[in-house]
Design brief:
about 400 residues; alpha/beta; FAD/NAD(P)-binding domain; 2 domains; eight-stranded mixed beta sheet; five-stranded parallel beta sheet; globular; binds flavin-adenine dinucleotide
Length: about 400
């Protein structure tokens, strides 16, 4: 076992979107030296564990680091996002962060990157591959870029129990399925479940073979209101004005959501069911129409236990059969996290300052005084102008 002594101005824990965005601004606007440690083998955080058909749900133009556009500036010409700005696939997002590390950060000579390392606190981390440990003398700040604790299906443990013999898979396994099951049972009401249902429909599954367990319906953001170009100015800025009017006129949280729906800011899949959550999932109207082809939606609360012949819910039970395939989509991409101050002595914790846009806060967080030659922060200002600013998340 070897203990290595290192020194840097900033130690960043996490090379996900947030850690990368933070480091990118440090590189552009200061002379600081940086060490980045992460338990993953590549930058990009949870995108390394994503299912193969995942995409961003917001336009690529809003995602990534300040210095390099992820978006190619294109609109989709086919598919359920047709006519709207492109959504990068998980593979594109992973490759993007990998390229930034390899071709920008490391060649700068100011970044040292330690993948496959577990942070232990007090400036110390250890290799997951050997007995090596590292102690960093930090001249300025430690940056915790792990705050969001994003949970994805492949690394998530469901809160319900499953009996032996039940066929239960994370989304990642779906494309490798060998036999058609008697039914596809999608567990979860959020964006991941929407992705699962859309993938099943797109690849030819019969909507009647899909059973969608929806513990809670969600309010959904209309993607057409979040487009980054002038062509969509009226929709995007109009939606922001509508939000402000709804907030100003609302007499209750319920009334606020009624107003947001009436003005076209928010959508729901089933007009007859009142949504109980709002997690910022963003969707196109074509995707909603497609999802409405699924008629077998089960609303009996959360799943508690799955047997080979029945599903037990908070509010009842339903028969099932041993040949049904359960797809767990109950991981929560927006987990409830503990509250910490952003600035706490020598520690910076990157937290959201704009809802539903995780790359945005990192460039804003640094406490340093920028040098006189500071470049214009195009990301922050551009994103502020273009992104809807609904901040009321009364439902959780
Ligand atoms: C399917 C999906 C689609 C999404 N689409 C969008 C979108 O369109 N737009 C958008 O803005 N957001 C989207 N999000 C939200 C997304 O979570 C954020 O955009 C962003 O990727 C979160 O980045 P992060 O750096 O906070 O977290 P992560 O990606 O989880 O990165 C944190 C990193 O910290 C590391 N780490 C944690 N603890 C330790 C430790 N003790 N030691 C070492 N390393 C550690 C982890 O290994 C990880 O690599 C989506 C999320 C999901 C799941």
């Amino acid at each position: 076992m070897a203990t290595h002594s290192l020194e840097a101005d900033y130690l960043i824990i996490g090379s996900g979107a947030v850690g990368m965005a933070f480091a990118d601004v440090l590189l552009a606007e200061t002379d600081a030296s940086i060490i980045i440690a992460d338990r993953h083998h590549k930058p990009g955080g949870h995108w390394n564990d994503a299912y193969s058909f995942v995409t961003l749900h917001q336009p690529s133009a809003y995602y990534g680091v300040n210095s390099r556009e992820l978006s190619k500036g294109r609109k989709d010409e086919v598919g359920l996002n047709q006519g709207l700005h492109e959504l990068a696939s998980g593979a594109e997002v992973s490759a993007y962060f990998d390229q930034i590390m390899k071709h920008q950060f490391l060649p700068s000579g100011r970044v040292q990157y330690f993948p496959m390392c577990e942070y232990e606190g007090d400036g110390k981390f250890s290799s997951r591959m050997s007995d090596d440990t590292y102690e960093v003398k930090i001249n300025k700040k430690t940056v915790d870029a792990t705050y969001f604790k994003t949970s994805v299906p492949s690394t998530h443990t469901p809160s319900y129990t499953v009996a032996d013999g039940v066929k239960m898979h994370p989304l990642n396994d779906l494309p490798n399925m060998e036999e058609k099951p008697s039914a596809y049972v999608v567990v979860g009401g959020g964006k991941t479940a929407i992705d699962a249902c859309l993938w099943l429909l797109e690849t030819g599954a019969d909507p009647d073979d899909i059973r969608w367990i929806m513990p809670r319906d969600g309010w959904l953001i209309d993607r057409e209101n979040t487009q980054p170009t002038e062509e969509f100015f009226t929709r995007t800025i109009g939606a922001q004005a509508n939000q402000m009017e709804a907030i100003a006129g609302a007499t209750s949280i319920e009334n606020l959501f009624d107003r947001l729906e009436a003005s076209g800011v928010l959508l729901r899949i089933d007009q007859s069911v009142r949504p109980q959550m709002y997690h910022g999932a963003t969707i196109s109207r074509d995707e909603i129409s497609e999802l409405r082809r699924i008629k077998n939606i089960i609303r009996l609360g959360r799943v508690k236990h799955i047997e080979t012949d029945q599903i037990i819910f908070e509010q009842g039970a339903l028969p099932s059969d041993a040949d049904a395939l359960y797809i767990d989509c109950s991981a929560r991409a927006v987990p409830v996290t503990e509250q910490f101050p952003v600035f706490d002595g020598d520690l910076i914790t990157c937290k959201p300052c704009e809802p539903f846009n995780r790359c945005f806060p990192a460039p804003l967080s640094p406490m340093w005084k920028p040098p006189a030659t500071t470049k214009k922060r195009k990301t922050t200002s551009a994103r502020l102008c273009r992104y809807p600013i609904l901040t009321l998340t009364g439902l959780s």
